[in-house]
Amino acid sequence: MSAGFLLKRLILAIPTLFGVAVIVFVLLRIVPGDPIAMMIGPGATPADIQQLRATYGLDKSIGHQFLLYVNDLAQGRFGTSISMRQDVMELILGRLPVTIELCVMAMLAAMGIGGAMAVTGAYYRGRWPEVGIDGLAGFILAIPDFLWALLFILFVVILSLSGLPISGRISHAISFDAVTNFYLLESLLRLRFNVLGSVLLHMVLPALSLALPLAAIISRVLKTSLNEAMTQDYVQLARVKGFTRFRIVAREALRNALVPTVTLTGVQFTFLVGGTVLVEKIFSYPGIGNMAIDAVINRDLPLIQGLVLTFAVLFIAINLAVDMSYALLNPRMRHG
Amino acid sequence: MAELAATRPVWRRATENWRIRVGGGFLFFLVAVALLAPLIAPHDPIDQDLLLQYLPPAWADKGEAAHIFGTDNLGRDILSRLIYGARIALIVAVCAALAAGLIGTTLGLLAGYIGGWVDQAISRLVEIWMAFPAVLLSIVLVAVMGTGLHSVIIAIAVIDWTRFCRVVRAETMAQKAQDYVASAVTIGLPRRRILVREILPNVMPLLLVLLTLEMGIAIIVEAILSYVGLSLSSEFPTWGSMIGAGRQYVNQAPWLMVAPIAMVIATVLALNALGDGLKDTLDPVMRK
Q: Can you tell me the mean pLDDT for B273-282?
């Protein structure tokens, strides 16, 4: 991959980020309610309110506020959360690992489920399992992660599957003096298997809710590429060599069919990350998505601002990574 | 046979498509239910009766025939709330999809036809928009504008116009390369006329499919906003707010969530089926 291509993509991301920042600012400064009056309670004097407005810079002109805002952002300062009275950046960085671990697990689940569906469909091409898998993928795709999450909760309650937790990140009975908020990684490294088990168990339903729609997309695209790859010469050669059909589909064809799937999965991964907003809320999972809804309900301006920007940065970074992996995987793009 | 099939009128082909029959049939039923709500709903959807809280569905133990799907945490009849909820779901679906379609199609036509800096500017705007988490943005937008039907519709339109814009832009570029556009330019038709009278009708089938699919998305977003408590005030029965209440009391009364979730899923599946069916029928390439 040429350095020029990389540089161009990086530079193009800057105006996008700036545009995002501008829109967030414009959006949030037309809030009708006064966030200060809301947080301070009925007993406050006008002087108290005035002082707090000054603290949060809300007493200055819109133009002035915008300059301060851009200046702060450029230095990575998101301000202080109104509802939690803590630095926004610290709050977000504290919760980010929770969401990252959840998203990575969901992604792995999506690839596993989608991959298995695609290989099965391609293996049984033209027969009833393929038709079934196509129908299943269509059905899964029609239902968004938010509804999957609620359906899973319903199943757990109705079938009384008390072993599958539907809220929180770790069992209250377990005390874990974590150094980082990457519980999964940390418990694995410190060989705390009871923690690992509890964290994984709490992840199952939220990760599955996020994973299913993506799994359906992966299954569709990968199956199409697999079926296409099955008509290529090297597959014919493998057949002549007497390899089993399963080996041909799962080894020979799969390797060559992966490029379009990787690209698409990357783009769809942003939707998965966006889905954490609701799925984390539904499962009371303590990541940044859950935090975002609370921030909106509390009208916590600096926190909302910080969270929307964090999501936007994540999305832009994922897209950049996808472009680059595409360039790496596809030789024709490498020298473009 | 294939040639014969192609010469039959579109509406006849449409009615022979099973997806259109099933999807369209369900939607027709839903529209009828929404229109006739005051006549067919067995109870007032906001009428509370605290003596009848958490009544299970009629077929379960302790269920009552007067409340087929049971009652919620405030003793309100679930079936009646579902029926009235269909009104709000359909209003939001139609208005939001049309509004998003209008914005997206206008910008997509302009970007695709004019090209140059106009295309650059619009494409860049789409790119910025796509960098936002859609669900979070819609929640923030409604929180900013205040709850209410109009806020929900505006929020969905403001977020989802990009879906139309990208597709219409690409299609307009493809149409622009066709001979009929070149002839229209040659005979000196004004640009606006070419866009509205020549290109738009050719983009229309695609637009119809997109609108159908967008209605499904709008219903989901409305349910999400209601679920978070940001759609309409609690006096209005919405499927999303019913789901939200159901989640809260899921351990006492799991059936609260079943009916509204089933309605949202059925409606979205019906709209998807209709959209796919229309795509099969209207798209000349797919038809073969």
A: 87
- DSSP letters, A80-128, are B-TTT-SBHHHHHHHHHHHHHHHHHHHHHHHHHHHHHHHHHHHHTTTSH
User: Which of A99, A154, A269 to mutate to test binding with chain B, by most B CBs within 10 Å of its CB?
Assistant: A154
Which of B18, B19, B135, B147 to mutate to probe the A interface, most A CBs <10 Å? Answer: B135
Task: DSSP for A172-183, please give it.
Answer: TT-----SSS-H
Model confidence over B239-258: pLDDT tens digits?
988 998 888 888 888 888 99
User: B198 with B189: CB under 8 angstroms?
Assistant: yes
* B114 pLDDT more than 70: yes
Using alpha carbons, select from A86, A103, A169 the residue that is nearest to residue A314: A103
Q: Looking at residue B271, what is its pLDDT?
A: 94
B6 — pLDDT class (breaks 50, 70, 90): low
pLDDT at position A31, please? Answer: 55
Mean pLDDT for all residues in chain B: 87
pLDDT given for residue B66 in this prediction: 81
CB–CB of A164/A204 below 8 Å?
Answer: yes
Q: In angstroms, what separates the C-alpha of B179 from chain A's closest C-alpha?
A: 33
More confident residue, B75 or B114: B114
The answer to whether the CB atoms of B128 and A16 lie below 8 A apart is yes
CB B77 within 8 A of CB B43: yes
Spatial contact of A241 and A247, defined as CB atoms under 8 Å apart: no
How many Cβ atoms from other residues are within 10 Å of residue A224's Cβ? 16
Q: Are A150 and B261 in contact (CB < 8 Å)? A: yes
| Confidence category of residue B162, pLDDT binned at 50, 70, 90 | very high
Q: What is the mean pLDDT of residues A253-257?
A: 80
Look-up: residue for tokens 């707090």? A52
Burial string for B52-65 (b: 16+ CB within 10 Å, else e) reads bbbbbbeeeeebee
> CA separation (Å) from B212 to A335, B18, B88, B206, B215?
42, 16, 17, 10, 5
The DSSP H or E segment spanning B1 is none
ipTM tops the 0.95 cut: no
pLDDT for the residue numbered B128: 87
CA distance, residue B264 to nearest chain A CA (Å): 9
> DSSP character for A305?
H
Is B136's CB within 8 Å of A142's CB?
Answer: no
Q: Where are the alpha helices (DSSP H) in B146-199?
A: 149-176, 179-186, 191-193
Cα separation, A21 vs A27, in Å, equals 10
CB contact under 8 A, B257 and A154: yes
SS3 of B21-88: the string is HHHHHHHHHHHHHHHCHHHHCCCCCCCCCHHHCCCCCCCCCCCCCCCCCCECCCCCEHHHHHHHHHHH
Window 267-286 of B, Cβ < 8 Å to A:
268-269, 272
Cβ-Cβ contacts under 8 Å, A312 against chain B: 131-133
pLDDT of residue B286: 45
pLDDT band at A236 (very low <50, low <70, confident <90, very high): confident
Residue A257 identity:
A
Residue A80 has φ and ψ, to the nearest 5°, of -110, 135
Give the one of B124, B133, B141 whose C-beta lies nearest to A277's C-beta. Answer: B133
